[in-house]
Amino acid sequence: MASSFGYFSDEGNNEKILRESFRLLMQEGLLLLDLPNRDFVLKIFSQ
User: Fold this and answer.
1) Model confidence over 16-30: pLDDT tens digits?
2) How far apart are the C-alpha atoms of 1 and 17, rounded to whole Å?
3) What is the DSSP string of the chain?
4) What is the rounded distance in angstroms from the CA atom of residue 43 to the CA atom of residue 37?
5) Residue 47 to residue 7: CA distance in whole angstroms
6) Which of 2, 9, 14, 25 counts the highest number of beta carbons within 10 A?
7) Are 31 and 1 contacting, i.e. CB atoms less than 8 angstroms apart?
8) Average pLDDT over residues 1-20
9) Are the CB atoms for 14 and 43 separated by under 8 Å?
């Protein structure tokens, strides 16, 4: 998924991605998310 999670303005779309990701996992599978610190990113890009 790279960094595609969390960029939708509608939280419902983020939820859909998570639900579909979990649906596709093998039994006992893991979903790992590498997410940037939101506040840090906003601070850097708002300067």
Assistant:
1) 988 999 999 999 999
2) 10
3) -TT-TT--SSHHHHHHHHHHHHHHSPTT---------HHHHHHHHT-
4) 10
5) 20
6) 14
7) no
8) 78
9) no
